[in-house]
Amino acid sequence: MTETKFLCGFAHRSGTVVGVASGTLVAMYVIDLVGKISPDLKPFRVVSAFRYYGSAIQNGLDWAHVATLTATALALTIAGTEMFQRRDIL
Questions:
Q1: What band does 80 get if pLDDT is binned at 50, 70 and 90?
Q2: Which of 6, 33, 39, 45 could disulfide-link 80, Cβ–Cβ 3.0 to 4.6 Å?
Q3: Are 9 and 21 in contact (CB under 8 A)?
Q4: How far is residue 81's CA from residue 90's CA, in Å, rounded to a whole number?
């Protein structure tokens, strides 16, 4: 998970990092689910990674969405690597 490495630059405890990363995934899933159910909340689905997965088995891959997820993962990995190298080891 790329957000885990990103969070390691801020937190010094693995439990905190895993908890925040897991909570983020659950929140993104709930946002995607609620956005599918309620038309008023549909614009908020943009922040969920689950929106970009879509239904690849039925409709095939949307390469723009694949590129978006890959670029986001790459950006978080680069930022996390930089922050992790600069932190003080306790």
A1: confident
A2: 6
A3: no
A4: 18
Residue 70, token pair as written in the block: 């890959």
For the stretch 27-77, pLDDT in tens is: 989 998 999 899 888 888 888 888 877 777 778 888 888 898 899 889 888
Read off φ and ψ for residue 8, nearest 5 degrees.
-60, -25
CA nearest to 23, candidates 37, 4, 10? 4
- The length of the chain is 90
- The model's pTM: 0.68
